[in-house]
Specification:
Elements (H helix, E strand, L loop, with lengths): L5 H15 L3 H4 L3 H43 L2 H19 L5 H21 L2 E4 L11 E7 L8 E6 L1 E4 L2 E4 L1 E6 L3
Parallel strand pairs: 2-6
Antiparallel strand pairs: 1-4, 3-6, 4-5
Helix pairs in contact: 4-5
């Protein structure tokens, strides 16, 4: 067999050792590479920010459209119910041989229809006779002498109305001056 030359073996080992040596330039990336990496990262953040901005703008626009549609069509159900009341009024006026009694009867039925619609949509009457004056629900027109305690509603000139406990129109009332 052939013997290996120890000098060559040592030389091979030296070369292999130098191949595994790491120079400082190999470990630290250059400033160009760092700059490019930073620019890529900045572009990624900018793209993500632009996407989020566009998404929030779309959400805001959709919400505004939803609010607009809700306002536009909020009274649709109420309007449909009121059509029946209007039809009843028109039918009552179309009768040619109407008597006072038939008019009164037709008006009572129409008022009942209207009351049903109001009840269905939580519109309640404010009729405060005998109650203490509440400026949130009542509008005093005048004070009158009365045996009742001061600021008590004596008479209602015009009923008020509330929608789900929110006053649509205050009741016009006369209140007691007291004694």
């Amino acid at each position: 067999m052939e013997q290996s030359n120890p000098k060559i073996d040592q030389h091979d080992n030296v070369e292999s050792d130098s191949a595994t040596d790491v120079t400082p330039n190999d470990v630290m990336p250059g400033t160009e590479e760092l700059l490019q990496a930073a620019e890529r990262k900045a572009q990624e953040h900018y793209d993500a920010w632009m996407y989020a901005k566009a998404e929030s703008e779309n959400t805001r626009r959709r919400a505004a459209d939803d609010v607009s549609k809700a306002q536009k069509f909020a009274v649709e159900r109420f309007s449909n119910e009121m059509l029946a009341v209007k039809d009843s009024l028109e039918a009552g006026l179309a009768v040619e041989t109407a008597t006072v009694e038939s008019f009164k009867s037709g008006m009572e039925l129409t008022l009942k229809q209207l009351s049903t619609v109001f009840e269905k949509f939580h519109i309640t009457e404010i009729n405060p006779v005998g109650e203490k004056l509440d400026p949130h629900k009542h509008q005093a027109i005048s004070m009158v002498p009365s045996e009742q305690p001061a600021n008590t509603v004596v008479s209602v000139m015009q009923k008020g109305y509330a929608l789900n406990d929110r006053v649509l129109r205050p009741a016009l009332v006369l209140v007691s001056q007291g004694q």
